[in-house]
Every structure is written in structure tokens, then in C-alpha cells.
Write a structure and sequence with these properties.
19% strand
Length: 483
């Protein structure tokens, strides 16, 4: 095929895909405008289905081991006597693994930086934007969203703007199935969110359940409510933010790939407990040459009268269940390592009490590796957050200051245990003193300095003042009479 025809064909395919996506969205909007809500929502991907499956694994009450059947007891003739309950020990591995992953990802808040060209106006806008994130408790909501995504596979942060006392305000709500939210999404072929919907239930004035769908597109927000046993009311409002005000977190659950290992560990623990219940206490072994009868279980008598040749002794287990315990220990190590989770014990924490940040990072390398893998997607989520906030500030919260689009914002993840500041500063000063680093780079790399540009301005200002002071001192030395 000639190159010209190949290029034309490629562009044709891309154009058709874009047109199909646009047409799909137009059809979706038409269904909403026609109040055909079930069909419109049916065009979206329901993230709640998988979330429910993951929550069944996450919550210990619904673990597989909890379904262990009771043990049937039979007499010597094979007649059923009763059911004996068995141990069902569910271990919260999933929660432990998820919380450790959260600490390594967002144990310390994300640092936002103004990477715009030096401008007092842009610096002021950057300050107002980050102040707004602080007022909305963004860092706390970010950790909450990551926690839900780690256990459900999907969560979202909704940036809700509203008017109160004539003032535009914003709050952030985390959406997840655990909070009774149904999440629906539609992404285009470039992984851009084109439609987001949230389903939830409220109670009306008569305490009847009313189901809602809030549907977000770049142009409109559709507030849909079921009424009269099936009919739908739709309130379409203009989306003044001009972006879908949602950040969607999608990931594999943090224990991904280790479920069968966890099931086996819980089963082994439960069977060990059964064995301990049945055989841990010493068993009394006696010959028939005993004058008096053995005491019943509830009696306290310990006196046995023996006939000639009679004998009484206790039978105790030796090294009971060692093979099963060895298996549990091996499986535990596999569950932790294969989910990239540092296996932290109380003794480990005591031993690392005075360790530096660098030492902790090496000891807990698995957590760092996993966090770095997650950053591939979370870098994108945080970039979307800064772009969304620029639209919210410029179009809703701070319209008088004009557009925020010229503002260039970057972000930086912080290590969970902090940096070994003294060691970092020492290395920087050594390289600077040897002429291998500029003062500007030293300021940018120093963990003690938040804004290198401002610090450089202060240094230059102080240097100029010192030069003026020295110049003035020199002039006085020349003109003052010698006594």
C-alpha cells in the first residue's frame, strides 16, 4: 500500500473513532433530555459491580473461611448425634495491605509548586488556589479516596461548587460503594473522562426512598430523580466549571494476586484452632483395673483407687501441628511479598525506632516499589486535579481575577518516612563547596527550602544590603578626621 494511502487510512480510522465517540455522547444526551434515564445509564460502565465483589473479600465477615460447615458427630453405629461448631478465623490481611500501601503513597501530603514564570499576579493566584485546597481538606479527602480505591477498585472525588450568602464556595466529597454511592463512567479512546454519573438514595419528607442520578458532562449537569414509581424528573443545569468536576481513581485492589494464599492461611489457622480445641489439653488414659469410677467432667475429684495392675496416666501432644504452622509462616511471607507489602512486626518497629529515613526506605523497599508503580496513574490524577482547580477558580470561585490557565502547577510526592535532612544538606553543601553545583540548584534541591526562587531573591536582597553597608563604612573611614 502506498504511504499516502496508508496515512489517509490511519487518519480515517482515527476520525471515525472520534466521530463515533461524539455521536455516542450525543445519543446519551438525547436520552437524558428525553428522560429515558435507565437507557442512558445503561450506556455507562457500572463500577459498583466489581466494587461489591472486592468488598466481599475485604470485609472479614464475608471471607470464604466463614462458610466452613459444622462438623457432624456420629455414634459407633453411624447414627447422627449432633453438629459440632468449628473455628472460623478470618484475618484482615486485605485491610493491613491496603493501609500500608496508603502510607507509602500519601503518608505525607503532596507538595504543590508554582512553576509559572516569575509574576506577582500568578504567585497570588497560586496562593489562592492552594488555600482553597486547604480549606476543602484536600489532603484528607485524597487519602480517603486512595483507601477506598485500594479496597474497592474504584473511588472518586467530587468537587462541588455552590452559593452561600452570595459567595461562591467549594467542598469535596469522596464517592465510593462503601458510602452507598454507585459510580458510572464513560472514557473515550484516549482515556479522557467524557461522562460521569453518581447514583444514590435519599429519603423524602414522607420517609420514602428516592433514587437519584447526578450526571456530569463538560457542558451540563443533569440532576435526575425517580418519582411516582418509575417516572423520572430531570433538572439540567449549566456546568460553569466547564470541566467534569470529578477525579476518578481506578486501580487493582492492593491484595491483587494473593487471594488464594490468604484463603489457605485462614483455613489453616482455623484447622489449627480446631486441633487445639480437641487435643491441646492432656488426655487421661486409664486401664480397666480401677476400683472407683472416673470423675465426670464437671466434678473436681482427683482421687483414683487402683486395683492390682491398674494404671492412670496423661497423654500429651508433642510438636503438634508443626507442619501446618510451617505452612502458615511460608504462606504469610508469600502474601506479603507478592502484594509488595513490608511485613512489619512490633519487634521490627522497636528496632527501627531511631533509624534514619534512608534506612527505613531500604528496609521497606517493597512498599516503595509498589508506591512507584501506583504513581504512574496518580501522577495523572494529580495533574487533572490542578487543571480542574484552575477551571474552578477562574470560572466560579475567583472570576474577578480572570483566567487561571496561565498558571503552571507541578506536584511532588513526599517519602512516607521523611528524608534524612542532615545527610542531604551535607551532600549538597559538599558538592556546592567543590564548585560542582550552582547556588540556584542548591536551593532547589535543599529539603529545608520550599521556594527556591523566593529564597534566591532574599539572598540577593541581603547581599545588596550588605554591600551598601560596607560601601557606607568605607566612605566614613575616608572622610572622618583622624583623632
Amino acid at each position: 500500500m502506498p504511504l499516502k494511502d496508508a496515512i489517509k487510512r490511519i487518519f480515517g480510522v482515527v476520525t471515525n473513532e472520534i466521530n463515533a465517540a461524539i455521536g455516542y455522547q450525543q445519543t446519551f444526551s438525547e436520552l437524558l433530555d428525553n428522560k429515558d434515564i435507565p437507557r442512558a445509564i445503561g450506556m455507562l460502565e457500572n463500577r459498583s459491580t466489581k466494587a461489591i465483589e472486592n468488598l466481599l473479600l475485604y470485609n472479614t465477615d464475608t471471607h470464604k473461611v466463614m462458610k466452613r460447615p459444622a462438623k457432624a458427630i456420629y455414634d459407633k453405629r453411624g447414627n447422627f448425634i449432633r453438629n459440632k461448631d468449628v473455628n472460623r478465623i478470618a484475618i484482615p490481611y486485605h485491610k493491613f495491605i491496603n493501609e500500608i500501601a496508603l502510607v507509602f503513597m500519601y503518608g505525607k501530603p503532596v507538595i504543590w509548586n508554582n512553576a509559572s514564570q516569575d509574576s506577582a499576579e500568578l504567585e497570588e493566584k497560586f496562593k489562592r488556589l492552594t488555600d482553597q485546597l486547604g480549606k476543602s481538606h484536600f489532603d484528607a479527602h485524597l487519602r480517603e479516596a486512595k483507601r477506598f480505591a485500594g479496597c474497592e477498585g474504584c473511588s472518586a472525588m467530587l468537587f462541588h461548587t455552590y452559593q452561600e450568602d452570595g459567595e461562591a464556595k467549594m467542598l469535596i466529597r469522596v464517592l465510593a460503594k462503601s458510602k452507598n454511592d454507585d459510580i458510572y463512567t464513560l472514557f473515550d479512546q484516549f482515556d479522557r473522562l467524557t461522562v460521569f454519573a453518581r447514583g444514590y438514595t435519599t429519603l423524602d419528607a414522607e420517609r420514602r426512598s428516592v433514587y437519584h442520578y447526578d450526571v456530569y458532562t463538560k457542558e451540563f449537569i443533569y440532576y435526575c430523580k425517580s418519582v411516582n414509581g418509575g417516572a423520572w424528573e430531570v433538572d439540567r443545569q449549566t456546568n460553569f466549571v466547564k470541566k467534569i468536576p470529578v477525579i476518578v481513581f481506578i486501580q487493582d485492589v492492593e491484595w491483587d494476586g494473593t487471594q488464594t494464599i490468604i484463603d489457605r492461611i485462614e483455613d489453616a489457622y482455623s484447622r489449627n484452632a480446631d486441633s487445639n480445641d480437641n487435643f491441646a489439653d492432656p488426655a487421661l488414659v486409664a486401664t480397666s483395673e480401677i476400683a472407683n469410677t472416673l470423675p465426670k467432667q464437671e466434678e473436681e475429684s482427683k482421687l483414683y483407687v487402683l486395683k492390682n495392675g491398674g494404671d492412670v496416666k496423661y497423654l500429651e501432644r508433642q510438636n503438634a501441628n508443626q507442619a501446618r504452622q510451617d505452612e502458615i509462616d511460608a504462606l504469610d511471607e508469600q502474601a506479603m511479598s507478592k502484594s509488595f507489602t513490608p511485613n512489619i512486626t512490633i519487634e521490627d518497629l522497636r528496632g527501627l525506632a531511631n533509624a534514619s529515613g534512608t534506612t527505613l526506605e531500604h528496609v521497606m523497599m517493597l512498599g516503595t516499589i509498589k508506591a512507584d508503580m501506583r504513581k504512574e496513574s496518580h501522577d495523572n490524577y494529580l495533574s487533572r486535579t490542578s487543571n480542574l482547580m484552575k477551571s474552578i477558580m477562574g470560572n466560579v470561585l475567583d472570576m474577578k481575577s480572570g483566567s487561571y490557565e496561565e498558571l503552571h502547577i507541578t506536584h511532588k510526592f513526599q517519602p512516607p518516612f521523611g528524608e534524612d535532612v542532615a545527610a542531604v544538606v551535607e551532600r549538597l553543601m559538599k558538592q556546592f563547596g567543590q564548585g560542582g553545583m550552582s547556588l540556584q540548584t542548591l536551593l532547589e534541591q535543599s529539603p529545608l527550602i520550599d521556594n527556591a526562587e523566593k529564597e534566591m531573591e532574599r539572598i540577593n536582597e541581603e547581599k545588596n544590603k550588605e554591600d551598601e553597608r560596607r560601601k557606607s563604612a568605607s566612605v566614613r573611614d575616608v572622610f572622618e578626621p583622624t583623632l
